[in-house]
C-alpha cells in the first residue's frame, strides 16, 4: 500500500478548509499504473464539490473532498497487464471522479486508459493545464454539438482559460465563435491580441443577447450554443433568451444539471428542430465502453499541444502542496485569470 500526501477540502456549512493530509492509495493490481505527479491544474473547491456531487457515492469520503483531477507526471510502476506505458514514460491524464484520489498529491494510481504519453517537448505544466479543458471543448463541440465547417458557435459564460481553449479549437476546426460573458472586457485583456482576431466578443446585458447574436449571424442564429453558466447564479440569461439565439437545426449544450424545460421552451426548440445536450465531460471516465474513443481524444489533445495548435492560458504556478491550499482558497468560479497549476519536483 502506497502512502502519499494529498490536498483535501473539508466543507462545514458555508466554510471550506483546505489542508494537506497523508492518504493511502488504493491497492494496486495488474491493470493499474503508479504515477509520480509533477503538475496538477487547480480548480476552485466549490466547482470540484459541485461536479463530484453528481455522483452520489463520491461527493465526500470521511468528510474530505479530494482535490485535483488534471495531472501530468512520470510512470513509476505498472501492473502485469499494462502494455501501453512503461516505467519512466511521461504521461498526462484525468483522475476519474469515482477513484476518490487527489491529483494534488505526490502519487496517484490510475488505469492505463486514463492516461496517454506526452512528448518530451511538452512540459508537465502545459499538459496538466490543457488536458481537462480541452476534453470539455471536444465533448461539447465535437461529440454533442456535431460541429461542422463554417458553423457558428455561441459560448455563454466560462472562465478566461476555457474561453481561450474554445477559441483555439473552434478556429482549428474552421468554425466561427461568438463569446458572450459578463466579464468580456477583462477576458479580452487576459486572452490577448493573438486570439482576439479569431473570435467575436459581445458585451451583453442578457436581455440584449438575442439582438446582438442575430446581428453577428445575419439573423440566422447560432448553430451551436454552449451555455456554461449555472442557474444558481443571479446574473444569467433566461433559457428563453438563449433558445431564441439558436438557428434551425441548432444544438443547445448545457452544463446545468438542473436545467428545466417548460412547455413554451419545448415548443421553441421544436419549431427550430433543435436538440438539447448536457455537458459532463467525466462521463468518458465512467463508461468502459468509451475507453477507445476517450484515449483518441486525449492523444489528439496532447498532439495539438506538442505542435502548438493549442496553448493553455497559465496565470501562475505554485511549487508546494501547502501553497496549493492557499492558491485554491483564492480561486473563484469563472475567474478572469488563467489557469493556476501546482508544479512538483
Keywords:
28% strand, seven-stranded mixed beta sheet, 16 strands, alpha/beta, six-stranded parallel beta sheet, globular
Q: Give the overall pLDDT as a whole number.
A: 84
Largest β sheet strand count, sense and barrel closure? 7 strands, mixed
Tell the overall outline: globular
Which series of helices and strands comes N to C?
A: EEEHEEEEEHEHEHHEHEHEHEHHEHE
Q: Tell me the number of strands.
A: 16
Provide a short characterization of the protein structure.
By secondary structure, this protein is an alpha/beta fold. Helices cover 31% and strands 28% of the residues.
Write the layout of secondary structure elements.
Blueprint (H helix, E strand, L loop, with lengths): L2 E10 L2 E10 L7 E11 L2 H8 L12 E2 L3 E9 L11 E5 L12 E5 L3 E3 L6 H21 L7 E5 L3 H13 L3 E5 L3 H8 L1 H4 L2 E4 L6 H8 L5 E6 L11 H5 L2 E9 L8 H9 L3 E4 L4 H4 L4 H16 L7 E5 L2 H10 L8 E5 L2
Parallel strand pairs: 9-10, 9-12, 10-11, 12-13, 13-14, 15-16
Antiparallel strand pairs: 1-2, 1-4, 3-5, 3-7, 3-16, 5-6, 6-8
Amino acid at each position: 500500500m502506497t502512502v502519499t500526501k494529498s490536498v483535501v477540502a473539508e466543507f462545514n456549512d458555508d466554510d471550506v478548509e483546505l489542508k494537506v493530509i497523508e492518504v493511502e492509495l488504493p491497492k494496486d493490481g495488474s491493470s493499474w499504473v503508479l504515477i509520480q505527479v509533477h503538475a496538477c491544474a487547480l480548480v476552485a473547491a466549490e466547482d470540484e464539490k459541485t461536479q463530484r456531487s453528481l455522483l452520489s457515492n463520491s461527493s465526500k469520503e470521511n468528510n474530505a473532498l479530494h482535490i485535483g483531477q488534471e495531472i501530468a507526471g512520470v510512470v513509476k510502476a505498472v501492473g502485469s497487464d499494462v502494455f501501453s506505458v512503461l516505467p519512466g514514460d511521461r504521461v498526462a491524464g484525468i483522475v476519474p471522479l469515482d477513484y476518490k484520489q487527489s491529483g494534488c498529491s505526490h502519487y496517484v494510481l490510475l488505469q492505463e486508459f486514463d492516461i496517454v504519453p506526452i512528448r518530451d517537448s511538452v512540459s508537465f505544466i502545459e499538459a496538466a493545464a490543457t488536458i481537462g479543458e480541452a476534453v470539455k471543448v471536444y465533448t461539447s463541440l465535437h461529440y454533442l454539438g456535431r460541429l461542422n465547417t463554417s458553423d457558428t458557435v455561441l459560448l455563454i459564460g466560462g472562465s478566461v482559460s476555457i474561453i481561450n481553449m474554445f477559441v483555439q479549437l473552434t478556429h482549428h476546426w474552421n468554425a466561427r465563435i461568438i463569446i458572450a460573458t459578463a466579464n468580456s472586457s477583462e477576458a479580452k485583456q487576459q486572452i490577448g491580441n493573438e486570439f482576439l482576431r479569431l473570435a467575436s466578443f459581445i458585451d451583453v446585458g442578457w436581455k440584449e443577447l438575442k439582438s446582438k447574436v442575430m446581428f453577428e449571424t445575419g439573423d440566422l442564429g447560432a448553430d451551436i450554443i454552449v451555455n456554461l453558466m449555472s442557474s444558481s447564479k443571479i446574473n444569467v440569461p433566461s433559457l428563453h433568451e438563449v433558445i431564441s439565439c439558436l438557428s434551425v437545426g441548432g444544438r443547445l449544450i448545457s452544463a446545468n444539471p438542473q436545467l428545466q424545460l417548460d412547455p413554451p421552451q419545448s415548443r421553441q426548440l421544436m419549431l427550430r428542430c433543435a436538440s438539447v445536450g448536457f455537458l459532463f465531460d467525466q462521463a468518458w471516465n465512467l463508461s468502459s465502453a468509451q475507453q477507445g474513443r476517450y484515449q483518441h481524444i486525449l492523444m489528439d489533445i496532447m498532439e495539438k499541444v506538442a505542435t502548438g495548435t493549442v496553448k493553455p492560458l497559465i496565470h501562475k504556478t505554485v511549487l508546494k502542496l501547502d501553497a496549493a491550499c492557499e492558491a485554491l482558497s483564492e480561486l473563484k468560479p469563472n475567474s478572469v485569470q488563467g489557469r493556476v497549476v501546482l508544479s512538483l519536483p
